[in-house]
C-alpha cells in the first residue's frame, strides 16, 4: 500500500454549552484524518446563560484561560485552527465582548456559528466515508440546541436546528435535582412542543434508525440498549427516561460523571421527543460529531474538490429566498469560474478562494429584493448577515465585499468598503470582484447569449473569445467598459472577439 503523505496539521476547537473541546489531527490529501491530540474541559459556558442571557464573567474567565492554553498547544503543533461556538455563544448578549477577548488574549478567531452550520458540520463529522448514495439521519443534542440533519452520502441535504438542549432544559426545570412525576410530565410536554415547532412530522426518504453523536446520546444509549448493542429502540429510550427520573441525584452521579449526571434527564427527554416526533425505530450511538466535522471541513477546504456542489447549492437556496434571477446568476457564475480557471497564471490566487467568487457570482443581485437602487449595497448586507452553510464568518464577509463591488464603485484598495481587511484579503477581493464585473457584463441582457468563453494570455494582453448563441452586442459593449478596470487590476489589456457557437450555426442551418 502506498504510504500517505501528511499535508497539513489541523485543529478543531468546539465551545459548547457544556464543555470546551480541542482536537488536533493530521489531514491527508485523500481526505483521511488521524487524531494527534485531544482535550476536554467542563467549562460549562451555558451555565446560567439561559436564565440571564449572558455568560457570567467568572465563566468567561474560565473559558479564556482554557482557550489560551489550547492556542499554545495548537501553535506548538503549528496547526491550522478553526474555533467554533454553538448555541451558548451565539445566544449570549455579551458574545461580541467574548469574541474580542478571545482574539486579544488567546489569539484565536472564535466564530459563533449558526444552527444550520452546526448541523452541517455535525453531519460531516458523523458521515465521512459513507457510500455516496447512502441515506442517513443524524441527531446531535447539545447543551443549548439540538441539530438534525438528513444526508445522502456524506452531504447534508436537509438541516434543522431546535432551540432546546440538555443544559437549557435542565436550567428551566431544575432537573439536576430530584424529578417529580409532574415535573417530568412538564418537561416532556415542553420538549415535544419545541420539537414539533422546528421539525417536520417525519422526514421522508430517510431511515427510521438515526445516528446520535452527542455525549448525552452516547451515555443514554449505553444505559438503555440491550447488552452488546450500540442502539436503543424508541421504547427502550422511553423506559430509560422513566428510570432516570426515578433516580435521586446521588444515584445518577454513581452511574455517570458529575457534569453528565446533572443534565442526563433533560438529554433523555429531548431524545425521546425526537424519536416520537420522527417516528424513529431506534437511535444508534456514534463516536464522531461536530468536532470531527470541523476537521473534515478544514481538510476539504485545503484540498477543495471543485466538483463539490454543496456550497453552491446553499447559495442557490439563499438566492431563491430573495427571488433572484436564477438563470442570470448561474450564467454569471459559470462565466466567472471559466475566467478564474483559464486565467490562473494572471490572477495568481490560490484555489481556496475560488468558491468565494462562485458564491458571490450566484448572489450578486439578491439586493434587488430590497431595492434596485444601490442594490449592490443591499446585497453586501444580506450576504454578510445571511446563513450560508459551508462559509465561516470571515469567508462570508469576504464574499459579501466581492459581491458589493460587482457594480458602481471600482474595488480600489483605499475604498471604505475594504476597511478591516488584511492587505492580502483586500487584493483578493479586488481581483475577484473585477472578474465578477466582467462576468456580469457578459450577461448584461440577462438573456444568456454567451454559450462559452475562452480566455488566453498573449504577452500583456488577455484575448477573450466569446462563443455566442444569440445577439451579444450589449454584452460586448459593457465588457469594453470594464476593460479599463481590468487593465488597472491585472496589468493586462482585455481584447474581446466573438464567434457564433457551433450549436447556434447548426440551429440556423
Topology:
Elements lengths: L5 E10 L4 E9 L4 E9 L7 H4 L4 H21 L2 E6 L1 H5 L3 H12 L3 E3 L2 H13 L7 E7 L4 E7 L2 E8 L3 H8 L7 H18 L10 E4 L2 H10 L6 E3 H13 L2 H7 L2 H20 L4 E4 L4 H13 L7 H12 L4 H17 L1 H4 L6 H10 L11 H10 L8 H12 L18 H19 L8 E9 L2 E8 L4 H18 L2 E8 L1 H7 L1
Structural notes for this entry:
It is a single chain. Helix content is 50%, strand content 19%. The protein has 509 residues and is an alpha/beta fold. It has 3 domains: 6-113, ATPase, nucleotide binding domain (Nucleotidyltransferase, domain 5, 2-Layer Sandwich); 116-292, Nucleotidyltransferase, domain 5 (2-Layer Sandwich); 304-508, Hypothetical protein af1432. Strands 8-7-6-9-11-10 form a 6-stranded mixed β-sheet, with helices on both faces. It has a 5-stranded mixed β-sheet with strand order 3-2-1-4-5, sandwiched between helices. A 3-stranded mixed β-sheet has the order 12-13-14. Helix 2 (57-77) packs parallel to helix 4 (95-106), helix 6 packs across helix 11 and helix 9 (234-246) runs antiparallel to helix 11. The longest helix has 21 residues, at 57-77. It starts with 5 loop residues before the first strand and ends with a helix. 47% of the residues are buried.
